[in-house]
Amino acid sequence: MNFQRSLIVAAASVLVSVGVVDGQSLGDVARRETERRKEVQAPGKVYTNDNIRGDSTAPATPAPAAPTAATTPTTPPAAATGAQPKAGDKAPAEKPGAAKGEKYWTDRLVAARTNIDRLKTFAEALQTRINALTADFSARSDPAQRNQIFADRQKALDELERVRKEIDEGTKAIADIQEEGRKAGVPAGWLR
Questions:
Q1: pTM of the model
Q2: Rg (Cα) of the chain, in Å, rounded?
Q3: CA–CA gap between residue 5 and residue 181 (Å, rounded)
Q4: Rounded distance between C-alpha atoms, residue 55 and residue 69, angstroms
Q5: What is each CA distance from 120 to 11, 133, 152, 174, in whole angstroms?
Q6: Backbone torsion region of residue 82, taken as left when φ is above 0, otherwise alpha when ψ lies between -120 and 50, otherwise beta
Q7: Helix axes 102-139 and 143-183, enclosed angle (nearest 10)
Q8: How far apart are CA 153 and CA 158, in angstroms?
Q9: 86-142 pLDDT, tens per residue?
Q10: DSSP letter, residue 134
Q11: To 5 degrees, how large is the angle CA 22–CA 24–CA 26?
Q12: What residue spans of the chain are helical by DSSP H?
């Protein structure tokens, strides 16, 4: 009998709550949401294309796993235990990336990638100029004009070669930044 009574009370409370939810109109919900937004003091984080970095089509990599007992040091450092270092002890080497935050690493990578993008755009413009000079060279019959066009084309070719070397150096610099961050123990998400 007690079981039946509690079952009836539970069913009745579910029906009453469903009736209350069904009784709300879209206008009521909108008014409550407007009032709630007025009460919120600090706006939430706004995401823009500038905030989101990297290739959105690349698959997301999982976050680094928490250190396990096998990877955690078994002896705590002297500073943590309050023990004074001895005269012969070497000071523990601080990781170079430990004091630098996410902004430092992402800014370095963004600057390097921006430089590469700028260089690639310049290389494309140079290639277009080279193509135009090549076409102009073949269309001219005056030797003086051809010599001037040839000299301009050669300058553009030399500049294009220099820019391509800079692009290669910039690509290597990005790989070096990522390697430096990896060695410093920086989370992989900061190096994308």
A1: 0.47
A2: 33
A3: 65
A4: 35
A5: 69, 20, 20, 15
A6: left
A7: 160
A8: 9
A9: 444 444 444 444 467 888 888 888 999 999 999 999 999 999 999 999 999 999 999
A10: H
A11: 115
A12: 2-22, 26-39, 78-81, 102-139, 143-183
* Contacts with 170 (C-beta within 8 Å, 6 or more apart), sequence order: 112, 115, 116, 119
CA distance linking residue 136 with residue 128, whole number of Å: 12
Token reading at 68: 């396990």
Question: How far is residue 121 from each of residues 71, 99, 131, 155, 164, measured CA to CA in Å?
Answer: 45, 35, 15, 18, 11
Which residue carries 């060279």 as its tokens? 137
Q: How does DSSP assign 5-17, residue by residue? A: HHHHHHHHHHHHH
149-162 pLDDT tens trace: 999 999 999 999 99
Report the distance separating Cα 23 and Cα 25, nearest Å: 6
> Which of 51, 153, 27, 39 minimizes the C-alpha distance to 103?
51
Measure the CA–CA gap between 162 and 108, rounded to whole angstroms.
Answer: 23
The DSSP code sequence of 99-130 is: S--HHHHHHHHHHHHHHHHHHHHHHHHHHHHH
